[in-house]
Amino acid sequence: MPLIQTAGLFTAGLIATTSLVAGVTSNGTDDAATDIQDVPCGALWSRLPADLRDDLAAVRDLPEGERIAALEQLREDALDGDYGDRVQQLAEGRDERVRAVRRLLPADLRVDLREARDLTGDEQVAALRAIRDGALGGDYGDRVQQVAVTVQQRLEACETP
Q1: Can you give the three-state secondary structure of 112-137, one letter per residue?
Q2: By CB count within 10 A, which of 12, 42, 61, 73 is most buried?
Q3: CA-CA distance, 59 to 85, in Å (whole number)?
Q4: For residue 80, what are the CA distances in angstroms to 73, 85, 99?
């Protein structure tokens, strides 16, 4: 089962991972995000700073109920510059990217994500899995379903870095 199996992380993963990997692997061109789709997962993983790779891999070993908090700590570490300047810059821009995407989400999905955010541990994991399953099942509309299926396919393809 992949590390990011919850809808909140599923949604955030699409935003954050694409942005992070695009920035870290960018060759200075504006089409770096487009190029990502043609690069094997291992190549993307190998371009991340080694300490970030180690910390992300360590999250996999945690109980599911602890993973979200651990990923939030990794984000704080990135904001503090612990993984280098480029990762710090990308982490600093994350909030605006997330807000932009949230504005585009259907209202019912925004409400469900907000409610799940207020939960903790296993309750949060269960709520986010239900959101993920709903997104994959089309409960939030065709466009959300298309994005959810694409993200799921990418997660499965990159399951083991």
Answers
A1: HHHHHHCCCHHHHHHHHHHHHHHHHH
A2: 12
A3: 22
A4: 10, 9, 21
